[in-house]
Design a protein that fits this description.
Structural class: alpha/beta
Bound molecules: adenosine-5'-triphosphate
Distance between the termini: 34 Å
Mean pLDDT: 90
Strand content: 25-35%
Order of helices and strands: EEEHEEHEHHHEHEHEEHEHEEHEH
Number of helices: 11
Largest sheet: 6 strands, mixed
Low-confidence stretches: none
Shape: elongated
Helix content: 25-40%
């Protein structure tokens, strides 16, 4: 078990992490969900022993990881947000290079590269130069590099940003099967669908703090007394939002300017349809469509912060 206790990290005047505590149980996929700048990367960099916290500590099996960072790093695989590969080498050569960095050699290294290739599925492109790979393929090799030394714990920082849907699905399935083999995984993302799909437990972060935690069911339970509705207007102005916010029983209103879509979270039982139609008429706004939605983690975040994760 990893225990993160009250860690803080200041970068000069920026308080990136403000007293975060987490537990990560053996064999689970732990999700860290939050918008850009929430402090996810800083938190996992501290867990990865990349830099120490300004205060607080991280314990692995009861011992402070900074007392023996090398020992801890041996059981840790880290997939950084930025691709860290040599573009002028092939996928195979990159794996070989990083395997050697981990101290693997000879037959053991060859066998492990083959096993890792099996896991990441490069489909015959392993002898091509990495600079000619798609974003998704680079990402898969990056993950492969972190798996070479058979880590017990894998930390993945937004591993699906900017890649094609096929690679994304492959990565999600890989993460699931690694967990089934007993690996502990810390997975950060600002894609709530991924976190919902993969993670056994989730910590939601915002502005350097944990604002909610639990399984996806437990988190959604927090909004079990509410429902979510999406309304698309022909046009919207500030007054539209103001009148919607003022409806008694409405808990949060978020607006997406791109398509004039408004998300409302409201108490179950209020006559929301009639109220929204009345307000639309009052402000002379035409409604294009209305949809009642099943609650998602995005709605939990919206209720807690008044913003969407991708604002
Ligand atoms: N080395 C640094 N120097 C100064 N400020 C930093 C540094 N690293 C992070 N920050 C700031 O700390 C805050 C948290 O950043 P962090 O990268 O941990 O967030 P995040 O949730 O991982 O978001 P992202 O997905 O954008 O990386 C941000 O305001 C960021 O600008």
């Amino acid at each position: 078990m990893i225990e993160v206790k009250e860690i803080r990290k200041n970068f000069k005047k920026v308080e990136a992490v403000k007293g975060v505590s987490l537990t990560i149980n053996d064999g689970e996929i732990l999700g860290l969900l939050g918008p850009n700048g929430a402090g996810k990367s800083t938190t996992i960099s501290i867990i990865s022993t990349l830099f120490p916290p300004s205060s607080g500590e991280v314990l692995y099996e009861g011992k402070n990881i900074l007392k023996n960072p090398r020992g801890f790093r041996e059981i840790l695989g880290v997939v950084p947000q930025e691709i860290a590969l040599y573009p002028e080498l092939t996928g195979y050569e990159n794996l070989r290079f990083f395997g050697k960095v981990y101290g693997l050699k000879g037959k053991e290294l060859e066998e492990r590269i083959q096993e890792v290739l099996e896991i990441i599925g490069l489909n015959g492109r392993v002898r091509d130069l990495v600079k000619n790979y798609s974003g998704g393929m680079k990402r898969r090799v990056n993950i492969g590099c972190a798996l070479l030394h058979k880590p017990k714990i894998l930390i993945m920082d937004e591993p699906t940003v900017g890649i094609d849907p096929q690679s994304r699905n492959h990565i999600l399935e890989t993460v699931k099967s690694l967990r089934e083999e007993g690996m502990t995984i810390i997975y950060t993302s600002h894609y709530m669908e991924e976190v919902e799909y993969l993670c056994d437990r989730i910590y939601i972060m915002d502005h350097g703090e944990i604002i909610a935690t639990g399984s996806k069911e437990e988190l959604k339970e927090q909004i079990s007394n509410e429902e979510t509705m999406e309304v698309i207007f022909e046009t919207i102005q500030d007054d539209t939002i103001k009148v919607l916010k003022n409806i008694i029983g409405v808990k949060a209103v978020n607006i997406n300017d791109n398509d004039n879509r408004v998300t409302l979270i409201y108490e179950k039982g209020i006559n929301i349809l009639q109220l929204v139609f009345e307000k639309a008429q009052e402000t002379q706004k035409k409604i294009i469509s209305i949809q009642i939605k099943t609650p998602t983690l995005e709605d939990v975040f919206l209720k807690l912060t008044g913003r969407t994760i991708r604002d």
